[in-house]
Specification:
Blueprint lengths: L2 H27 L1 H10 L5 H24 L3 H24 L19 H25 L6
Helix pairs in contact: 1-3, 1-5, 2-3, 3-4, 4-5
């Protein structure tokens, strides 16, 4: 891999690490508030909102830390890719149904909410970073090496 490719890989990896460590830490700090944000999407049974709110922040934190440490990058990126696709589907559903809700992504108790449209654009950007990180990691190390 070229020097530029390595630089892009590390930049993408570190941006993703920062985003998901930050998001996971904020959500973990206020699980009940985050469960309320999940409930606004009207997609899950009531009890599942709390289950998702109790698990998701720690999964984001774990994946973010793995990316930060440059360890088990492909499994972390794969998990975040799947989560990001789920987020995109949920946000798209909220947009289609005309729900005017806070996405709950970074501030579960925000005074200035982020609407589904802006959150969807942000998640599409994160999807591009995840794909770039995956592809550049595969160029850096063959799949058998990890």
């Amino acid at each position: 891999m070229t020097r530029a490719g390595k630089t892009i890989y590390h930049a993408c990896r570190l941006i993703l690490a920062a985003v998901f460590i930050y998001a996971g830490a904020l959500k973990a700090h206020n699980v009940v508030g985050f469960a309320g944000q999940i409930a606004h999407y009207q997609l899950l049974p009531y009890a599942w909102n709390y289950l998702v709110a109790a698990i998701l922040p720690y999964l984001e934190l774990l994946c973010g830390i793995l990316l930060l440490l440059n360890r088990r990058v492909r499994p972390a990126v794969l998990a975040l890719f799947i989560l990001n696709l789920i987020f995109i589907v949920a946000l798209s559903s909220a947009l289609v149904r005309g729900l005017d809700i806070d996405c709950g992504c970074f501030r579960p108790d925000a005074a200035n909410p982020t609407g589904p449209g802006l959150a969807l654009l942000r998640d599409l950007g994160l999807l591009v970073l995840l794909l770039a990180t995956w592809a550049l990691r595969c160029l850096q190390r063959p799949l058998e090496a990890e």
